[in-house]
Amino acid sequence: MSLRDDIVAYARTLLGTPFHMNARVPRVGIDCAGVLVLAARRCCPFVPEDFDLPPYTGTPDGHTMIEWCNKYMGAPVTKAMMQPGDACVMRTANYPQHLGVIGRHAHGGLSLIHASNSASPPRVIETTLVWLPNQRFIAAYQFPGMDLF
Length: 149
What we know:
By secondary structure, the chain is an alpha+beta fold.
């Protein structure tokens, strides 16, 4: 398996975990940043155990998430070049506020593995990656250290 495959496989182990803001406990509670953070901690050999976003609230400020990704994630990836095992940042309102891991959908195309507070019940889900007015691409990144493999 490649590092990309490991990241996607680990993110999928989180499917069904209940959504809880700022949580990082598999099968107990997690938020969208937690999916990315736990996958990086588990799969990327150079990521420290304390790898995480700075404290945040449910109201995005427009810069914290993207600044953190620019500083701590791996190389930026264009929308057209995203592939399974990359991380994606999107906005659902005015500011970047949602993260997910890119996967390969079972029925073709890319998928997004992410914790959704709008799922019923709120939990980690995998959905077809589509861009809608309420789900817009902001940025994508390789995971830290991906360029070393």
